[in-house]
Every structure is written in structure tokens, then in C-alpha cells.
Amino acid sequence: MTETSQSPRRSPEPRKARDWVKLLSDYRDPSTARSWFELAVTIGPFVLLWALAWWSLGVSYWLTLAISVVNAAFLLRLFAIQHDCGHGAFFRNRTLSDWLGRVLGVLTLTPYDVWRRSHSIHHSTAGNLGRRGMGDIHTLTVAEYRDLSPLNRLIYRLYRHPIVLFGLGPGYIFFLQNRIPLGLMATARYWVSAMATNAAILLLLGVIFWFGGLKPILLIFLPSTLLAATAGVWLFYVQHQFETTHWEAEEDWQLHDAALHGSSHYVMPAVLQWLSANIGIHHVHHLHSRIPFYRLPSVLRDHADLATGNRMTIRESIQNARLHLWDENSKRLLSFREARALIR
Q: Which of the ends of the chain has fewer CB neighbours closer than 10 A, N or C?
């Protein structure tokens, strides 16, 4: 009786980040009918809820606020559609995408051309320690933080505090910072984008004030905008700020590796995933930003490796909000307490 021996079966090598890009190109073409449908089921409820909230002013201010809270979710989804327009992923016609993005930018208080440029910089530099500063959340390394003066350490700690990042920050970004093209002020095109958006916002608010006074502005416009802005900032934060995210010095940085390993897969309940237009599938989005948001779930269904990579639950995302400093040695994002032990 002879005994045959078998060598253990090797697991297939994981697909390299660069190889995913070509594979994902099969998902990049938007469906015109589907895009119009997604716009309709977002802008329609948004307008109806605005009208319902306005009507409720004569019934109960608390009811008005409650409706405005719900409508913030649809405003967030409109921003996500504007986001796809900026990537040329919503309509095949780029001109149509751009003009839809500009119109939505009035509702989201975001000058479209300015945002599209800064967001493009974000995609082309995410995870690059040598090119921080535009379109990202400011993140220092442990070594950089160690070399700061006590005052600058305090400033950085205040900046990274949740009250500032998610309390004061969203209002500052959308109501103040977006009013001028910071970082792009030498180019007339971005001034035109910012000032035209500002003028349209003022006109819209003027119409609201003319017909309804301050109440619809204070009880509908402000709450829904602030809540949508806060949710948007939170989503942007958790998409790149997690313990095993990816940062490299410029000489070692590689675009596709940063996209795949430096972006999270934020797992949310189905209703939140729909309202956020699948933006939680962020690692796939960064690998191929031309994929329409409504095709991102198909990518996960077809490719199990991407479905299981960089997964983050809501509970884990809340825990990650305490991480603020990148340690270049362990390749981990650390809390101030963890970093203090290294510094000492």
C-alpha cells in the first residue's frame, strides 16, 4: 500500500491595488435613466419635506424642526450626487454633470468648481505625508507633534477635538470657508465659482425671507444644513481616519495602494447606506472614482476581497474618533495617550 502525500494548498495571492483599477473599469459607465431616477427620488422628497416643514410652522415649531432633521438626510444625499458629478460619474455627458453639480452646490452651500478642484487634489494625494493640506483633515505624525511647541500642541489638540471637528467645524466649513476659494485664490475661475454660488444662495435666502420671514430660515434652512454638514464631515473623517489607514512619505507613496488601504469600507444599515449614496464603500470609490455610486454595491457582490477589506462598523468608527497621530514606525494611527508614551 503506497501512501501519497499532498502539499498544502496555497491561498491565492491577494490582488494588487493597481490590478483592481483595470478590473473595476467594467463598472464605470453610468446609466442615464438610473441617474435621473436617483436624482428624482432625492430632490423630490427634499422639496416636499421643505414644503411640509414650511406648512408646519403654523402648527408646531418642534414639528418643523423634526421635519428639518429628516430633510437633512436628503440634503446629504444631494451632496453625494454633486460629489459624483464632480467625478464625471453621474452622467455620461460631462457638461450636464457639471451644471447639475453647480445647481446642487447652491443647495449644499458648496461652490462646485472650487470643491471639484480641491477634491481632485484629495484623491491624488490621500495618504501622502509630503502633500497634506488641501481637501483633507489635518493629521500630524508623532514626530511632528513631538517637535511642536506647547502652544502649537494645544492648538492641534483643540483642532482634533470632537467638539471642534464635528461641532464647530461643519458650520465653519459650509457657512464661512466655502464662501471664498481658499487655496485657489490666484485663479479667476474659482473666484467666479465661489461668488456666483454665494450670489445664488443669497438670492434663494432672499426669496425665502420675502415669503416667510426669518422663521423658515432659522427653523428649516439652518437646522437641515447644519445636520447635513455634520454628517458629511463625519463620513469624510471615518473614511480615512482609522487605526490601520495608510500614510507614506512622498518617496514611498503609491496612488493605488493609498486608495485601497487608506480608505475604509464603512458598514451601515441599508437605510443609512442609501441616504449616504453608498459613500461608505470608499475604498472602491478611491480605487476608481468614475464608478457611479449606485454601482458600488455590485462591485462588492462580485468581488469578495473588496467586500471584506477595511470594514468598519459604526461602533468602531466612534472608537476611531480618539485617534489623532500617525506613527511612521508602527504604521498606525494613535491616540494622544498612546503617542505620549512613545514621546516619553
A: N
Task: Report the greatest alpha carbon distance in the chain.
Answer: 96
CA separation, residue 207 to residues 50, 55, 75, 176, 214 (Å): 14, 16, 19, 21, 11
**What is the per-residue pLDDT for 14?**
66
Contact present, 300 and 307 (Cβ < 8 Å): yes
Q: In this structure, are residues 105 and 83 in contact, taking their beta carbons and an 8 Å threshold?
A: no
If you write DSSP's letter for every residue of 153-182 in order, what string do you get?
HHHHHHHHSHIIIIIIHHHIIIIIGGGTTT
**How is residue 93 written as a grid cell?**
455627458
E strands along the chain, which residues?
140-141, 265-266, 311-312, 323-327, 332-335
Residue 275: alpha-carbon gap to chain centroid: 13
Contacts of residue 233, Cβ cutoff 8 Å, sequence gap at least 6: 165, 166, 169, 170, 173
| Residue 305, C-alpha cell as written in the block | 476581497
Rg (CA), the chain: 22
* Other CB atoms within 10 A of residue 305 CB: 11
Q: Is the pLDDT of residue 34 over 90?
A: yes
What percentage of the chain's residues is helix, strand, coil (to nearest 5)? 65, 5, 30
| pTM exceeding 0.90 | yes
- Of 99, 241, 118, 123, the closest CA to residue 173 belongs to 118
The residues, ordered by sequence, that sit 6+ positions from 338 with a Cβ below 8 Å of its Cβ are: none
At a CB cut-off of 8 Å and minimum separation 6, what does 290 contact? 28, 87, 88, 89
pLDDT digit string (tens) for 221-251?
999 999 999 999 999 999 999 999 999 999 9
| Tens of pLDDT, residues 178-208 | 999 988 999 999 999 999 999 999 999 999 9
* Cβ(312)–Cβ(264) below 8 Å: yes
Of 177, 183, 179, which is closest to residue 193 (Cα–Cα)? 179
Write down the residue that cell numbers 429628516 correspond to.
70
> Looking at this protein, which amino acid is placed at residue 49?
L
Cβ neighbours of residue 153 under 8 Å, at least 6 residues apart? Answer: 145
Closest CA to 334 of 160, 169, 132: 160
